[in-house]
Amino acid sequence: xxxxxxxxxxxxxxxxxxxxxxxxxxxxxxxxxxxxxxxxxxxxxxxxxxxxxxxxxxxxxxxxxxxxxxxxxxxxxxxxxxxxxxxxxxxxxxxxxxxxxxxxxxxxxxxxxxxxxxxxxxxxxxxxxxxxxxxxxxxxxxxxxxxxxxxxxxxxxxxxxxxxxxxxxxxxxxxxxxxxxxxxxxxxxxxxxxxxxxxxxxxxxxxxxxxxxxxxxxxxxxxxxxxxxxxxxxxxxxxxxxxxxxxxxxxxxxxxxxxxxxxxxxxxxxxxxxxxxxxxxxxxxxxxxxxxxxxxxxxxxxxxxxxxxxxxxxxxxxxxxxxxxxxxxxxxxxxxxxxxxxxxxxxxxxxxxxxxxxxxxxxxxxxxxxxxxxxxxxxxxxxxxxxxxxxxx
Length: 393
What we know:
This protein is mostly helical. It has 18 helices and three strands.
């Protein structure tokens, strides 16, 4: 189960992971180009049909419907409405408009929404792949088809697994061409109902607990519009670096393997070791922002949760106990996909926010939302006193 309730940012981590994997798939095909064009058209980098097939199969969506969908939507809209003024008061900021994009979804619907987002994110790499694929011979085209099937399978398994775990998600419309589009709140009701029953929690209180966390993300990205722009710019830079690297002669699979093996003694996570230094720089900025966003949301949960929920501590304790008893398969999955790296950094983000707020007060920590220059680095998140000193505290 995701930290607190959210997996939207873990999904961003999945984008980065798949970006690296997909990028090296492009490089693999490029290394096998021949002089003469293939007789058929270019193959796709990602076999989206394969991805959907595996995602739906892994998600087991048919076994998890939504009884009384209309009643549940009214409930979530009401809970979002209760959360909004409390968060606005704590942050001393108002949203530009009331939250009105609230959706109650099943696993299949959540998957379709995320596949739409992923298609936008991967478009630049897909276009490069198609340009390279147009110059392949028949053998290269066949290898490209196999490559697309493999990456589609990987994406499908990743998203299918997440679809069974995610409870709530704030979708900030990654890389949307429309800068004015607002994010959407998704509540994956079958998963929420399952966890609520397993943990023996109150129907209303548990859903309010989830809504509070997700509404915090709305404030972080919509009350401070520059955050979304900054986030999208970093993501474009990361994918752009990957695309530029793959379009040149360097940066192929052998180089990646050398970085992976050679960096073993550093103690860095395997996902970080496969990145080039420039990719690592952007990756660190993305991780710092995601750690702050998730950590700040958890901080607000603790700060105002008890005002809203008499059972807040009970919910926290039972969720934490559930997180501590994850099955071995999930532990391995998190390690292989890099999600354990993100979860650890989200905890560091919460510790950073708590430490600054305890030492300097809420108004001081809220300065992180003033401008990009005020954002902490990963080093500062690990050592809050450095950020306090930089801010003149």
